Amino acid sequence: MNPHSEPTEPNSSDNSSRADNPSHAARPADPATPADQAPPSGSSGSSASSGSSGAAGGPPAEQQVTLRSAAELADALPYLMGFHPDDSVVLVALHGERGRFGGRVRLGIPADAAQWPDVADQLADCLISAAPDGSDRPTAILVYLCQEPGPGESGKDVKDRLRPLAQRLRTACGALDVPVLEALCIANGRYWSYCCPDFRCCPADGTPLAMPGTTVMAAAAAYAGLQVRGSLKEMEARLTPRTGPRGAEQVKALDTAAAELLPRMLRPDGAAGVRRDTLDLAEAMLGRFRLDTPTGSNRARDACDDALITDAEAAALILGLQDRLTRDRAAEWMEGSVAAPALRLWRALARRCAGGYLEHAVAPLSLAGWVCWATEDGPTARVTLGRALSIDPDYVFADLLHRALNEGLDPEPLRRCLREQRKEQTAVSGSGRTAPAQETPRPGKRPQPVRPGTADRPLGPRGGTRPDARTTDGRRRRRAGRDGDRSRR
User: Fold this and answer.
1) CA distances from residue 475 to 68, 160, 248, 434, 462 in whole angstroms, order as listed
2) Rounded to a whole number, what is the distance in angstroms from the first to the last CA of the chain?
3) Of 127, 159, 279, 296, which is least packed with CB atoms within 10 Å of its CB?
4) pTM for this prediction
């Protein structure tokens, strides 16, 4: 188990929140996501701007949300993560005397209880000891255990079964001199406290969670424009390959496409042709997706997207995107009007990687994660890239994106680089400087005769009497080489 790190991203409204239990404060920033650690927010203190105007020319007025009970802490979890973290253990760091929310780590609860001690030690160490700066060391920890009851179980059964894990987490944090302020179990629409022994406020049957949208945290999140994107299982279901008869049909299409692709790749210009055909087909699919925008639930929208692309088209795109240069060119579709259809297309392709082609899903998943990050949807980006890395932990593109996202880097430099690359490709295509074809002179063009006595003339600024074709052609070939090198970076 090696939790990935994940930053708390400051959002545009930068709302603050304070958790008083009984007197500590907490600050949530942009929702974190299932990727597994979020370092503390860069904001100082227990309050931040909520978007209201302050004095003229000065900073905006600060607004705070205070969380005073275990019920409000339980209600705040989806807003901290950006989704409902079902089947997860979540640790949240608190900083300073007022308990500002900081880093978060999340991991799926291991089914084998024998792994719990090691998991608890590593999660505590990841959140507390691995802080980038010693000054960011947490002053307290909140622990959440979220799991729905299994067959024949009740929520109380889940709480009792997970009690040893909660106790081990408290011990692991205490061993690092950081106390666990509250440990909550959330199951079946109720919550229980592992820290409060008073049955008057924490009954044995648990306490019902607040109705969605009725709490102070929900109001603050709505004001700040923060979104809860459903449950983690629902988000992952949108990326899961199809099974059953439809999955078998897609596997047949992939087998057929792979058999046809191999002879093409063995030709001298086969790789370039496959790249060109893959990108042309992807552009055609983007146009199709743009013209048909589905509505309804996520499941209904995904079903409509699946119907827009045939098995053969999906197979050709999936195999073509395994080429790194093709994938990097496809990454240019990441903003503006093309971003939404591109995200839908990459998700649809990931769902088509059925059977033994599961590893082929890493390329479209990485592209989907990049589009989410580029469009400032950090929670979905982390879920998507986490899914890609769970299939292939060594896939460099997904790993680099995941690390950059978790370290709180701005995607704009990469967006700018891709924009410039797109402009260069468009300019090269528009001017006809594409290739080896330029090395042959155009038919019907007569060579210019050399005038007598010009051999001894010095060359002028534009090459004098030397033929332009040789100089221009050499320059073009060098430019093509540099462009090729640039695309490989």
Assistant:
1) 70, 74, 51, 13, 14
2) 31
3) 296
4) 0.69
Nearest by Cα to 178 from 126, 225, 227: 126
pLDDT-derived band of residue 123, with 50, 70 and 90 as boundaries? very high
Whether residue 248 has pLDDT greater than 80:
yes
Burial of residue 294 (number of CB atoms within 10 Å: 0-12, 13-18, 19+) = middle
DSSP 8-state symbol, 355: G
Q: Does the pLDDT of residue 306 top 90, yes or no?
A: yes
Per residue in 132-145, pLDDT tens?
Answer: 555 578 999 999 99
Amino acid (1-letter code) at residue 483: D
Q: How far apart are CA 220 and CA 210, in angstroms?
A: 15
pLDDT at 9 over 90: no
32, 65 contact by CB (below 8 A): no
Alpha-carbon distance 186 to 23, whole Å?
Answer: 23
For residue 336, with 0-12 CB atoms within 10 Å meaning exposed, 13-18 middle and 19 or more buried, which class applies?
exposed
* Most distant CA atoms of the chain, gap in Å: 110
Paired with 140 in beta bridges are 94
Tokens 């979020």 map to which residue? 38
Give the pairing of strands 207-208 and 62-63.
unpaired
Of 260, 314, 249, the closest CA to residue 288 belongs to 314
Q: Is the peptide bond before 22 cis (omega within 30 degrees of 0)?
A: yes
Give me the amino acid identity at 204: A
36: nearest Cα among 87, 104, 88: 104
